[in-house]
Every structure is written in structure tokens, then in C-alpha cells.
Amino acid sequence: MGKIKFCEVDDEFFYFSSDFLKFSVPKFIKGEEMVWEKGDEKYKLIKMPVPLRLFGKKIDSYKVTHEKTGMEYFYSKKFGIVMMKMKDIVAPIFILEEDCGIAASASCR
What we know:
Layout: E1 5-6, E2 13-17, E3 22-26, E4 33-38, E5 41-47, E6 52-54, E7 57-59, E8 62-66, E9 71-76, E10 80-86, E11 94-95
Antiparallel strand pairs: 1-2, 2-3, 4-5, 5-8, 6-7, 8-9, 9-10, 10-11
């Protein structure tokens, strides 16, 4: 298994990078759509038009897509990453089972 890199405390982004997964989201999201690069990786963020419903909760979220892998992360400012899946293919969907995911706000604790 390879190494996982995480962001520094003073970074402008929440991110992690491993051999297979790469995620990045600005700590301060501006607007309903954004595009950015973190290192050599490109990402796109879109505000989801309706809340996700997971385990009886309505969760306002953004879809963050990693351009190279096509991985889609569903990110909530409060709960962090709540779900992830591969774009446009039939593959497993990974859903958060705990109260708070990676990059969750301090208010989620």
C-alpha cells in the first residue's frame, strides 16, 4: 500500500492524495461552480441542486470531480466527504457510515 499525503494546516485546500485516490476542495468555496488545480491535478466543483438524503439526514453538498480519474466526491461543508463513486460507470458507491467524514468542519464533532 502506498503513502497518503494530507494538506498542511495553513493550506487553502482540504486535500489528500494516494496512489489511487486524489481529493481537493477549497476551504472557502466561492459560488456554485469552481475549477482549480492542486499540483498537477485538476478538479471541478458543482453545488448539487437538491440535498442528498443519507441515513435520514438532508445534506447540502457539492460534487467534486477529479479530472484524471473521474472519481466524484460528494462533499458537505459540515460533514466532509459523505459519498464517492466513479463517474459514468457501474461501480461501487462508497457512503459515509460515521457522523463525520474527511474534511468535516469542527461543528460536526
